[in-house]
Amino acid sequence: MVGTVFTGVRGVDRRRILKAAAAGLAMPYVARLGVGSAFAQDKAFAGQEVSLLIIQPHVVTGQKLAADFEAATGAKVKVTVVPYDQVQAKATLDVQSGANEFDVLDYWYPTVGQLADEGTLEDVTDLIERDKAAIQPDDYIPLIYDAYTLHGGRRYGLPYDGDSHLLFYNKEILDRNGLKPPATWADYEAAIKTITEAESKNGIYGAAVLGGKAPIIIGSSYANRLAGFGGAFLKEDGSSALDSEAAVAAAKALLDSAPYALPTPLETRFEEGLPAFLGGKVAFIEFWSDLGVYAQDPSGSKIVDKWGAVRVPVGGSNTTPRLALNAGFAFGISSGSQKKELAWELIKFATKASYQKELLLLTGSGIDPDRTSLLYSEEYKAFAPAVQAGLAGGLEQALAWPTTAVSPQLQQTLADELALVLAGSKTPEQAIADAHTAWTGIIAG
């Protein structure tokens, strides 16, 4: 594609990287940009190149964005694609090693606090204020806007992909077994048990349970249950909330689903769960809301018009369904960028409401709504009616993951304990108690 340079990054070694001082470079280049800069000037950046680090699930949007931004501004976009669980390490190493290869970072929102404190992300608070007429920050769903970008009273990016999970189901499999979509986690367990016992001999299972060890995977499955049981990650004072009955119940519910899931949950990630559901091999999957678009695409789905979606179930004494903000990505400027003016133009272009609508309505984009105007737009209601109904009124009250500077460490610790539960090495009670103890120590510093 004209104007697009794609590079692939294989594994990035996970290592302990020392924190760096915050860069604090926002104000100087605010002045250099000048008031009134536009998204699409008359090829104002012709002959220049900007580098974007993006996660693999966003590769379709990366291709489109590169072509469209060059057409609008004349600037080429070099897109580097990395696995979703390696983007933080790649971004941090790029800055702290001095390589400074990337200008724009596609970052997972629970890492915003760490990326800000270590100086990887640029503070863009003043840029947002200056350009708020074009950015329309009040249009963002407030919970998403704050969770994705706010740390220490400053903002470090703009939301790009408003992720959350819904419970998707295969209508045909449920009908064959005389079942309805479950309202509670107990109903869910009973349903997947019935289906697996009846149909596993034919390669059909009750559910694909995402239990891959990466926090973004197993942590999302746990977050769905934690929200369903009315729990939270942190208390209002910032201390660990994993000492609650809901936290333990969520781990138990995750374990209880494992015997009736597609083998095996610990090895089931995004990459394994999606084709299993689209291929009609599982009855249920908790997945990102854009699955509703993939499921209706006959080029990759065998279940067109044979699926539905509801909010994740409730459990215990909780009777109010609640979404969890699982995954979720924003675009920020790398503090190591030597092209911060151009990087900011790319971010504004990619996140403006009109362009986000294009991405939201593009099959395969992997983009979910993060703006109120898009979530409730007639176009989105027509494009993904079942998904829109599940998200409307839910994203505003969803369970957000912690975003403090130690949040990545918290999530990795929890993911490790949950993996031990699924492996049968610890009971849910012991694993959550150990996670709570570890969290308490991490938070205390």
**Beta-strand residue percentage:** 5-15%
Strand order of the largest sheet: 1-3-2-4-12-7
Q: What is the CATH topology descriptor of the largest domain?
A: D-Maltodextrin-Binding Protein, domain 2
How many helices does DSSP assign?
20
Number of strands: 12
- pLDDT averaged over residues: 91
* The CATH superfamily title of the largest domain: Periplasmic binding protein-like II
Distance between the amino and carboxyl termini? 48 Å
Low-confidence stretches at least 5 residues in length (pLDDT < 50)? 1-41
Largest sheet: 6 strands, mixed
**Helix-strand category:** alpha/beta
Helical content, roughly? 40-55%
How many structural domains in the coordinates? 2
Keywords: Periplasm, Sugar transport, Transport
Subcellular location: Periplasm
GO cellular component, one term: periplasmic space
Family: Belongs to the bacterial solute-binding protein 1 family.
Provide structural commentary.
It is found in: Periplasm. InterPro entries: Bact_solute-bd_prot1, SBP, TAT_signal. Belongs to the bacterial solute-binding protein 1 family. Keywords: Periplasm, Sugar transport, Transport. 42% of the residues lie in helices and 13% in strands. It has 20 helices and 12 strands. The strands form 3 sheets. A 6-stranded mixed β-sheet has the order 1-3-2-4-12-7, sandwiched between helices. Helix 10 packs across helix 19 and helix 11 crosses helix 20. The radius of gyration is 22 Å and the shape is globular. The N terminus is likely disordered.
